[in-house]
Amino acid sequence: MSKIFNFCAGPAMLPTAVMEKAQAEFCNWQGLGVSVMEVSHRSPEYIAMAAEAEQDLRDLLAIPENYKVLFCHGGGRGQFAAVPLNLLGDKLEADYLLTGQWSKSAVVEAKKHARITETDIMTTTIDGKVTVKPTTEWPINAGAAYLHYCPNETIEGIEIFDLPETGVVPLVADMSSTILSRPIDVSKFGIIYAGAQKNIGPSGLSIVIVREDLIGYARKAIPSIFDYEVQAKADSMFNTPPTYAWYLAGLVFKWLKEQGGLVAVEKNNIAKAALLYNFIDGSNFYSNNVDNSVRSRMNIPFNLADDSLNDTFLSEAKAAGLLTLKGHKLVGGMRASIYNAMPIEGVQALVEFMNSFEKKHA
Amino acid sequence: MSKIFNFCAGPAMLPTAVMEKAQAEFCNWQGLGVSVMEVSHRSPEYIAMAAEAEQDLRDLLAIPENYKVLFCHGGGRGQFAAVPLNLLGDKLEADYLLTGQWSKSAVVEAKKHARITETDIMTTTIDGKVTVKPTTEWPINAGAAYLHYCPNETIEGIEIFDLPETGVVPLVADMSSTILSRPIDVSKFGIIYAGAQKNIGPSGLSIVIVREDLIGYARKAIPSIFDYEVQAKADSMFNTPPTYAWYLAGLVFKWLKEQGGLVAVEKNNIAKAALLYNFIDGSNFYSNNVDNSVRSRMNIPFNLADDSLNDTFLSEAKAAGLLTLKGHKLVGGMRASIYNAMPIEGVQALVEFMNSFEKKHA
């Protein structure tokens, strides 16, 4: 079998160097004779590692000092509930922008707690491509407790690169599938949250970056493990955190620094995405229906000209070591998720395979 | 350095055989060329593994068919919130029994949602030992939505082996630190829940065993990831579960079966606990203040006759490869947590060390 490249949308591949280091020290971490997953989260060794992981994340994203970083249980969907329960306070309404399945799922959860104004900001270009309205046309409602959006929709392959000006309304972003893929101006956000299982580490961990002045307004009914104030005071250790996931996230942050930080990572991500999009655009056999301006660099959905070839495509791809290319069931077709950990060689291998598949079957 | 034995209360040591297997297949699970933490939770391979883990747990605990088994995010403290949010329905009150720090912490969370009647069931024997009132004296309030208790308190070292008759009132148990250490009659319980990081796997996972007729009454404000109905319908995959922790739990379940199941495991746990308690009771230098009838087999706190020797004890123990014996800060002294994964050789090594320490310093 050739080298394996795993295009899973999440849980996604992790950097090979990270996995090899984790494997080597799996049963003997820091020479303690035990695994990092077997030590107390209150031990000096674990606390030092956890703090270093946070600092590395702060360095990577240039997180301002007036933001807390929390390492939480519950994944991204846990934060779908935690955000309204923390931010609504005595307000009754919040605004959600819709760009795909993930932003829609966040709305469902928020509606349990507030009156939600949903605004579909999707539109189509004159060429019939899917796009997103410019940020200047986004509705800003001063009465809303916050404005929520999802800058990268994994299923539709839509990514929003512009940042809106929301004034006093805190901007909340579900960055599960785009965090750490490029520099961002954290100071523009009230809250950034992300499930770990794309660009951070294994599933079961979520990271929350929250502006300090937004902490302290949680509704009474909030489970304490989701209360930003409780977890901020406890350095994310109000309860035992997902210690192994936190450790792996720390290894990923170190690896990102070794790559040259997010400027270098973005450059690589742009090159990877361009390679695949350019190939698709130059082909009459493959297609992607998203406008250039909002094409995701992380998740690239595409269709074959003949859907009846889908199964053949997937089985031949798997035989070539190219795994998990099936598109989400809601949209069908194919999808290549190419997060930070995917090397450009993986995208090259995919393009070569797609090219030869086209020649064989078109 | 001699062989390492890790007495951490949690995250605790995992079986050596499990850790070695996990390390060996860390980067290449089932020959897929990728880690189990890098595959989709929707993949056939992962779903098969997850189902097998559940079945193994069902076999080990003889879980009746009218109980659902859920693999959840959020740890034990997550369930402190999930239990009232799922079970209260339109009832307003629930009863909690107090036996130590963990049952008290559960009450704090439940009070956010219901009127809680707390009953301290601790008492002392004529010898001045700490004990628990017999189950026949526990208050059963037919108006309560449920009765909650914690059968093993890790900090105080108290374990309750008897089962109360609660009639129509569902009995809810936080079994985080005793689950899988002995057979239990699941049919006596409405809900059993457990954070994983003692006898199941790494932190970040909790397991919920819930009688089906109790599902479907969640309060509207519940985060969906904690809603038993939502997770039961989705086979615990409403959101991406903590996939790696689930996998490791599955390996632990297989290992428990290989040990001969819970009858054999209990026998071993009885022998391990007896070895340490008998040594302590035969010494004038060490003491444990819990009555025989409720002494924990999992967490054995003890004190030295001279507290000023505590630091010396801990440093000499560490040098001898006996880790994490410091007692919880709330009670001081020492604590040896000897969950399923601790081999009897570890307890023997501890007793030998304690014996020589006594001879040297008494």
From TrEMBL, chains A, B:
Pathway assigned in UniProt: Amino-acid biosynthesis; L-serine biosynthesis; L-serine from 3-phospho-D-glycerate: step 2/3; Cofactor biosynthesis; pyridoxine 5'-phosphate biosynthesis; pyridoxine 5'-phosphate from D-erythrose 4-phosphate: step 3/5
Pfam families with a match to the protein in the record: Aminotran_5
Stored CDD domains: PSAT_like
Positions bearing N6-(pyridoxal phosphate)lysine: 198
Entry cofactors: pyridoxal 5'-phosphate
Domain Aminotransferase class V as annotated: residue spans: 4-350
GO molecular function: transaminase activity
EC number: 2.6.1.52
Main location: cytoplasm
Cofactor descriptive note: Binds 1 pyridoxal phosphate per subunit.
Transmembrane segments: none
Chain residues that bind pyridoxal 5'-phosphate: 76-77, 102, 154, 174, 197, 239-240
Name used for this protein in its record: Phosphoserine aminotransferase
